[in-house]
Amino acid sequence: MTDPRSVPRRVLIVEDDDDVRASLHLVLEDDGWAVSLAPDGEAALEALRAEPGAFAVVLVDLMMPRLGGVGLLGRKAQDPAIAAVPVVVVSAIVDRVQLPDTGDVRAVLQKPVSIAALLDAVRHAAGGPSLARPAADAQGS
């Protein structure tokens, strides 16, 4: 497991809905994360490429203008400088979309998502401690 002290505490939220983006921002900021915002996949790629290695996690919605989440995952995977940045997908349509097998998706959360589930997924994706362990892990399976 990655040493949590070596992981940057910065997350990029990629979400086109202003209210959802603001809510996610507040929750993560209250948890101690530095937060950057992108309204779509194109803006996210620009942010990731401008500062490779700066983000511990990218939170991605799937349905967005210009470049949606699936397109973002595909293009991110093709850029070696940013391909390994962990992703947490947070979307209302996760059950209707086939995600590409890019190896960077650490969690897929259905909207609306609980604060506890969101924080757990982000912390886990960043290599830090989770709030709770799944039952299978707790039993040693």
The first-to-last residue Cα distance is 18 Å
Structural class by sheet pairing and helices: alpha/beta
Query: SSE order, as H and E?
Result: EHEHEHEEHH
Low-confidence stretches: 1-6, 132-141
**How many DSSP-defined strands?**
5
Fraction of residues in helix: 25-40%
Q: What is the helix tally?
A: 5
Largest sheet: 5 strands, parallel
Major beta sheet, strand line-up: 2-1-3-4-5
Overall 3D geometry? globular
Return Rg in Å: 14 Å
Describe the structure.
By secondary structure, the protein is an alpha/beta fold. Helices cover 33% and strands 18% of the residues. The protein has five helices and five strands, in the order βαβαβαββαα. It has a five-stranded parallel beta sheet, with helices on both faces. Helix 3 links the parallel strand 3 and strand 4 (87-91). Helix 2 packs parallel to helix 3 (69-77). The longest helix has 13 residues, at 18-30.
Defining traits:
141 residues, alpha/beta, 5-stranded parallel sheet, 5 helices, 5 strands, disordered N terminus, disordered C terminus
Quickly describe the structure.
Helix content is 33%, strand content 18%. The chain has five helices and five strands, in the order βαβαβαββαα.
Write the layout of secondary structure elements.
Elements: E1 10-14, H1 18-30, E2 34-38, H2 41-50, E3 57-60, H3 69-77, E4 87-91, E5 105-110, H4 115-125, H5 135-138
Parallel strand pairs: 1-2, 1-3, 3-4, 4-5
